[in-house]
Amino acid sequence: MNDTLNDFKVTDRQTFIKFLDLLRKDFLDNPKSWENKTLPDFLEALSAYTKDIQGYYDNTNQNINADRPDWSTFSDIFKGATIYE
Questions:
Q1: Residue 3: pLDDT band by 50, 70, 90 thresholds?
Q2: 70/4 Cα distance (integer angstroms)
Q3: Distance from the Cα of residue 14 to its chain's centroid
Q4: What letter does residue 60 receive in the DSSP assignment?
């Protein structure tokens, strides 16, 4: 995943749309950096990472409640699904 995508801040629906465009571009430009390259694999990882994201927030000392998501939570889930095994 490129630094632009990692550093991109999602704050609302419009920035989430831009994030998704950047995510797609990252896949096209850097497919080797993605663990889950097929749609079934990506969707499986998306589901699994959604279940586990609270642990990510807790382990990185982020005061985020995944049960009350905002647009940035969704971008975190999508980023995580690119590499989650």
A1: low
A2: 21
A3: 16
A4: T
Instruction: Write phi, then psi, for 75 (nearest 5 degrees).
Output: -65, -35
Please write the tens of the pLDDT for every residue from 69-83.
999 999 999 999 999
Backbone phi, then psi, for 44, in 5-degree steps?
-65, -45
The answer to whether 5 touches 76, Cβ cutoff 8 Å, is no
Q: For 19-39, what is the mean pLDDT?
A: 95
Q: Which residues contact 81 (CB under 8 A, 6 or more apart)?
A: 36, 42, 45, 46, 48, 49
Task: Give the count of beta carbons closer than 10 Å to the beta carbon of residue 18.
Answer: 13
pTM above 0.85, yes or no: yes
Q: How far apart are the first and last CA of the chain?
A: 15
* Cα atoms in the Cβ-side hemisphere of radius 13 Å centred on 16: 12
Please name the helix (run of DSSP H) or strand (run of DSSP E) that holds residue 8, with its range, or none. Answer: none
